[in-house]
Design a protein that fits this description.
By secondary structure, the chain is an alpha/beta fold. The chain has a single domain (about 1-110, about 230-470), classed as Rossmann fold, CATH 3.40.50. Helices cover about 45% and strands about 15% of the residues. The chain has helices spanning about 15-20, 40-45, 50-60, 70-80, 110-115, 120-130, 145-155, 175-180, 195-205, 210-220, 230-250, 270-280, 295-305, 330-335, 340-355, 360-370, 380-390, 400-415, 430-440, 440-445, 450-460, 465-470, 485-495, and strands at about 5, 30, 90-95, 100, 135-140, 160-165, 185-195, 220-225, 260-265, 285-290, 305-310, 355-360, 370-375, 420-425, 480-485. Strands 3-4-14-9-10-13 form a six-stranded mixed beta sheet, sandwiched between helices. A hairpin with a 2-residue loop joins strand 3 (about 90-95) and strand 4 (about 100). The longest helix has 20 residues, at about 230-250. The chain binds pyridoxal-5'-phosphate (PLP). Pyridoxal-5'-phosphate (PLP) binds near residues 265, 267 and 399.
Length: about 500
């Protein structure tokens, strides 16, 4: 399998090179050059595999320049004791048609671990394979969860340095503490005065700043990305869609070949794009349901075909989805346009210059035939956390509640009772403030984050995840705050350039 850029500048590189670079030099994203197709026999063959075996099989279609033995080593290191569930991603049945795919049993309690526990292992191999001499500097913009997951994954990994930028005041207290207490000789975390889009734009600007790139190169460094624009982030996410399907087959909720729906709480469009890749490979999917919070730019896009970022940015109770520029959509548009990089360059230019673009009829119709979209307000999200707890004794985090609320709307609107998997992206303990308030309003009053963790655990009988338990007792290591136009200077400072 060879990779190419969505903007047409690079069109024949190995996966190791794509992972090492992160983003293409022309500003585009790397996509696989050929379609991968699997059949029923392949899917049936996954039923008796464990998660690691499923991962090895699926990764081998895309990372063809990695030996099978190397992939085995990567998945073994990535998906082991660091996950609190032996299933890695347990599938929990809520009722007859509805299942929760819990992607948050990794060390940082959000689904980002699914990709970021394995990306550093890919990166080390990619550095070897490409004969890279420079140290790789991973720059990350985070709305909260990616930052910690990336720090955790790359901490003390030889040949790498990681710098994470997060919006000052734009992440939960637990998320902030997770990042600023990160140990590891190669880690940095910085608060940026701005929102997530400012932070992401700042990081993209550093990648494209020839002056900075040259200066760090002379000191033996080279940038890469651990955001979901990196193909090495996206490809491990394809695995759990197959795994969920195999689990449903295994517990006889569906029969071989039956179609299912996935509901994905969406921000940067990485997670749901992985679902689309799984479907395009042949996984039987009826609908991909794209769930947004009040930053509902994707809802409007899927309904109208116009992507318009000229709107107010809302800080919501699901901060990891507070995003108005969903970077990974570019990959979907490229695939659906028949790989027309000229068209994609035009759309992306319009987005920067005019603030919006409208896709052609063919792309819009293809999207509407497979995707359904809706959004949930903060009030509806809280109401959903309450009602699901009342009805099922199941505790949702705010992001997963957005998905659940949009699913309820989908069923009312369409009457579709196809077996459905809700992609559950975070532990409720990670967003304990909102969750505890939703469920135990009076008792939660006046408690700090750590008292809330205890309250939530005592009341629900759910255990506090190890990674969150003693956060308040750890030393604060990272204290840097910077303005959004100073991010480049900070990078140079950390690298002594
Ligand atoms: C990152 C994140 C999302 C959004 O995922 P995308 O791949 O950016 O669409 C949803 N929920 C949680 C908890 C997250 O951390």
């Amino acid at each position: 399998m060879r990779y190419k850029s969505t903007r047409g500048g690079l069109f024949d590189i190995a996966s190791a090179e794509a992972i090492k670079m992160g983003i293409a030099p022309d500003g585009g994203l790397f996509v696989p050059g050929e379609k991968v197709s699997i059949d029923k026999v392949f899917i049936d063959g996954l039923v008796n595999d464990n998660y690691r075996e499923r991962a090895e099989k699926i990764l081998s279609f895309f990372l063809t320049d990695f030996e099978r033995e190397e992939l085995r080593e990567c998945v073994t290191k990535a998906y082991g004791d660091n996950f609190s569930s032996p299933d890695v991603v347990p599938l929990v049945r809520l009722h007859e048609h509805l299942h929760m795919l819990e992607l948050w049993h990794g060390p940082t309690c959000a689904f980002k671990d699914m990709a970021l526990q394995i990306l550093p292992h890919f990166m080390v191999k990619a550095i070897e394979k490409t004969g890279e001499k420079a140290d790789i500097v991973i720059l990350v913009a985070t709305s909260g969860d990616t930052g910690k997951a990336a720090l955790e994954g790359f901490a003390d990994v030889d040949g790498t340095h990681i710098i994470v930028f997060y919006p000052n005041g734009g992440v939960s207290e637990v998320q902030r503490l997770q990042m600023v207490t990160q140990t590891g000789r190669n880690t940095n975390a910085v608060a940026v005065n701005g929102n997530f889009d400012d932070t992401q734009t700042g990081v993209k600007r550093i990648f494209n700043d020839e002056g900075i790139c040259k200066a760090i190169e002379e000191k033996g460094y080279r940038f890469s990305s651990a955001n979901s624009i990196n193909w090495g982030r996206l490809v491990p996410q394809i695995v759990y869609y197959f795994s969920a399907y195999a689990e449903l087959l295994k517990n006889k909720s569906i029969r071989s070949g039956d179609k299912i729906n996935f509901v994905v709480p969406t921000g940067n469009f990485g997670n749901i794009l992985a679902a689309w890749y799984a479907m395009s490979m042949g996984l039987p999917v009826n609908r991909l349901i794209c769930a947004s919070n009040e930053n509902n730019v994707l809802t409007d896009f899927i309904i109208s075909g116009t992507y318009d970022r000229r709107r107010e940015f809302h800080k919501t109770l699901s901060p990891s989805m507070d995003i108005l520029i969903s970077s990974n959509l570019e990959r979907l548009l490229y695939e659906l346009s028949g790989k027309d990089s000229g068209l994609i360059r035009g759309y992306m230019n319009d987005l920067i210059e005019k603030g919006f673009y409208t896709v052609n009829d063919s792309i819009r119709e293809q999207i509407q035939s497979k995707f359904w979209a809706g959004f949930s307000s903060d009030r509806e999200t809280i109401e959903c956390i309450r009602s699901v707890y009342q009805d099922y004794g199941y505790v949702l985090d705010t992001h997963t509640a957005v998905a659940m609320d949009v699913y309820d709307k989908y069923v009312i609107y369409t009457g579709d009772l196809t077996p459905t998997v809700i992609v559950s992206t975070a532990s409720p303990f990670k967003f304990n403030q909102s969750v505890a308030k939703a469920l135990f309003e009076d008792e939660a009053e006046g408690l700090d984050e750590f008292e809330l963790l205890k309250l939530l655990s005592e009341k629900t009988g759910w255990e506090i995840p190890v990674g969150l338990k003693d956060l308040d007792k750890r030393e604060i290591i990272h204290k840097t705050v910077c303005d959004k136009d100073k991010m480049g200077d900070i990078v140079m400072h950390f690298l002594n350039v």
